[in-house]
Every structure is written in C-alpha cells, then in structure tokens.
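Structure (tokenized):
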C-alpha cells in the first residue's frame, strides 16, 4: 500500500460528492461500504482509524474470524456475498445488514433466526444481467419475492443490490444500474406494507461514480480503498 488510506478515502468521498452535484443529490444519502474481504485485521484497522465505520465481507466465516481482532467496537458490518443456509445463524449474529437475499427459503431462515433478536435489515439481490453464474433473482421475480418477504417478521426489506455484468468501461454499467432502479421503483410502487425500498446497493471501485449518479445509496468499494 503506497497511498495512506486517509488519502484514498478522501478521494472517494470527493468523487462521491462530485457525482452527487452532477445529479442533484445530497451526499448524505450515499454511504461508503468499505469492502474488506481478503484484507487483514491490521489493514482494516488502519482504514477504521481514518474514520470509516461501515465494512463489508463476502464470506461469513472470514468475517467471524476477523471481527474480534479489531479494536473498533462501533463498526457496522454488511454481508455482500452468497449466504449458505447453514451459515444463517452466525450471519444473523454478526452482520447488521445482508445484501444478498435471493430466495424465499433463505429469507425464511433469516427471519426465523433474527426474529428473537431484532428485525434484520436485508436487501434483495437482483441479477440484472441474467448471468447464469451469478446469484440474484431475475428482475421479474423481484416483486413476488418482495411480497413474500414482507410477510416475514424477522427481516426488514430495505432495498435492492446488484453486481452488474463486468465491463472495463464504467459508463457501460449505467444501463444495469438503471435496470436496478426500475426494479426497485416497481416494488416501491406496489405499496407493500412493512417494507421500505430506500436502499440501492450498487457501484464498486471502477464504477461507483456512475452508480451514485444513478441513485446508489450504498457503494461497495474495496480495491480503491486498500490498493489505490
Ligand atoms: C469484492 C466486492 C466488491 C468490491 O470490489 P472492488 O472492485 O474491489 O471495489 C463489491 N461488491 C461485491 C459483492 C464484492 O464481492
């Protein structure tokens, strides 16, 4: 790591603010989710020392092992990778939000486990590019799944997340982000009681500025923080 994490974070926040200005948004609507998968507790600690408070991991086991090694008690942790049903118990115990709910079975398991603790905020993962190798529900399945999830007492549906098809050109991701916004709007317009579709988890290191222009509220950024 050559750049100090403070400088990397500063640059990201500056770019988020500029993207907000271009699109007439309030920067307070956008949260930086620092993706700390594969990074050591020491590296994560250095970023937390610079003021980052929201971190995400893509593997339950890795998050569980690393979390106790960090001195910052007030950090918020999100899960952004696939969740196996046999890891639901640990996931509910350690994460503040799950971005990757893509089946009623998983949603039901999460609800049953979380019900005794607190309603767990979750996002529905949408496979906007309909890529067979990717997790997420197809856009047309999103509304029926949202209706079913809304009946589960232990989870609180708060929005949608996507990992669009990979492209080198950030601009090429824009139509996929717009597709996620359409899916979100369709669910929101259905007026389902008990859900709140404010969160749009989209944008990574190479395309987060485009994602913010399109309405992202949670940008998931790893390499631009840890190896800028
Ligand atoms: C790794 C990962 C990211 C961060 O990717 P970078 O390109 O390093 O910013 C974001 N979202 C998910 C789901 C990831 O697995």
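Design, position by position:
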């Amino acid at each position: 790591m050559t750049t100090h994490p403070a400088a990397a974070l500063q640059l990201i926040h500056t770019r988020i603010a500029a993207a907000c200005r271009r699109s007439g948004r309030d920067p307070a609507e956008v949260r930086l989710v620092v993706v700390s998968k594969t990074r050591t507790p020491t590296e994560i600690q250095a970023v937390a020392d610079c003021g980052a408070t929201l971190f995400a991991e893509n593997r339950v086991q890795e998050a569980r092992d690393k979390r106790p090694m960090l001195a910052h008690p007030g950090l918020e942790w999100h899960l952004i990778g696939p969740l196996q049903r046999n890891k639901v118990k640990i996931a509910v115990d350690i994460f503040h939000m799950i971005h990757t709910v893509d089946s009623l079975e998983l949603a039901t398991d999460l609800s049953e486990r979380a019900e005794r603790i607190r309603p767990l905020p979750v996002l529905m993962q949408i496979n906007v590019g309909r890529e067979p190798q990717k997790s997420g529900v197809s856009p047309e399945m999103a509304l029926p799944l949202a209706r079913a999830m809304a009946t589960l007492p232990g989870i609180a549906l708060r929005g949608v997340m996507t990992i669009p098809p990979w492209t080198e050109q950030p601009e090429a991701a824009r139509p996929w982000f717009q597709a996620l916004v359409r899916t979100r709007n369709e669910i929101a317009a259905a007026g389902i009681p008990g859900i709140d579709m404010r969160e749009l988890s989209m944008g990574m290191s190479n395309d987060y500025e485009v994602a913010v222009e399109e309405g992202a509220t949670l940008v998931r950024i790893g390499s631009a923080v840890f190896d800028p």
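Reviewer-requested clarification: The first strand starts at residue 31 and ends at 35. The chain has a mean pLDDT of 96.
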